[in-house]
């Protein structure tokens, strides 16, 4: 599975829990957090609006 190593790192570091709390408390939206993770782990550049 492509995302398994990413998910493992996020869970092991505690980052997944922190992201979940941000979403629950409405301090972040899940789409933005997913985009941040994708950019970090897959070197994806945001080209929207360019």
Number of strands: 0
Terminal CA distance: 32 Å
Radius of gyration: 12 Å
As residue ranges, the low-confidence spans are: none
Global shape: flat
Question: Helical residue percent?
Answer: 55-70%
Determine the number of helices (DSSP H or I, runs of at least 4 residues): 3
Overview of the molecule:
The chain is mainly α and 50 residues long. The protein has a domain at 11-42. It is 66% helix and 0% strand. It contains three helices and no strands. The model has no long low-confidence stretch (mean pLDDT 88).
Any descriptors?
50 residues, mainly alpha, 66% helix, flat
Topology at a glance:
Layout: H1 4-13, H2 15-24, H3 30-42
